[in-house]
């Protein structure tokens, strides 16, 4: 069977394509025959059909860039992200969720029936279901400015970690938005990667300490590579997975399963859950 994943001749958009998982995603999609529009705040690092600079913190810039992308778009791969410190909590939540959502909403009118939005969240989202009330308050905001207004008025609810909060909300967002997108024939899903060897990793290790980061290693016993995250993301976005929507796929080497069954401990996950619980 040729073109197993059905990307030949398809038009796709990849954010965060200059580095790490986004770069690996753009590379794989290009090799699978897709025409890739690569978006990043940094210049492109691999040959793609088209590369555009975008700043996902900037509403007007997102709209300008989105307007230059012609439809029909068959796939949006939302990979751009910031780790939190040394970046500000504000920049982190803007890039990871508010800007990512604004871009996705701007592109949806150009997306074809049978297309998909595939987002990178994180295993840091573990336990998001315990905080649905505070997450839903932000999900219910309509548009970039309304999201910024909610974040400004409710800074205490999320600023303990813009990173963790942004990942909780992405896991919730896919289930929240799919009922609406599904009516247009568009799917949305996300992956929850475990620790991965990319340019982002030193920031996590500096902030939390390597031993703490390593508590997120699953039974697989090692960090993943960018390609090991890109492949499941590319599979989720494939038209072959047409019955998979609103789904969170844990790409964490078995960590979440082991945590759920009490066969692995990660102190930071309990600490994060406590911090989040204090806010609602
Ligand atoms: N590396 C890990 O251990 C890990 C684990 C779980 C989840 N993640 C998530 O994976 C995704 C990809 O991260 P990565 O590990 O490949 O890191 P990376 O730093 O290699 O890639 C992130 C990309 O996002 C881009 N970006 C940052 N700010 C931007 C902005 N304002 N506008 C547009 N683009 C911007 C960067 O330029 C970079 O190319 C992120 O969402 C991250 O949170 C990473």
TrEMBL record:
UniProt keyword list: Oxidoreductase
InterPro entries per UniProt: NAD(P)-bd_dom_sf (IPR036291), SDR_fam (IPR002347)
A molecular-function term among this protein's GO annotations: oxidoreductase activity, acting on the CH-OH group of donors, NAD or NADP as acceptor
GO biological process entries: fatty acid biosynthetic process
Keyword Ligase: no
PANTHER family tied to this protein: 3-OXOACYL-[ACYL-CARRIER-PROTEIN] REDUCTASE (PTHR42760:SF133), SHORT-CHAIN DEHYDROGENASES/REDUCTASES FAMILY MEMBER (PTHR42760)
Family named by the database record: Belongs to the short-chain dehydrogenases/reductases (SDR) family.
UniProt-recorded name of the protein: NAD(P)-dependent dehydrogenase (Short-subunit alcohol dehydrogenase family)
Native organism: Mycolicibacterium fluoranthenivorans
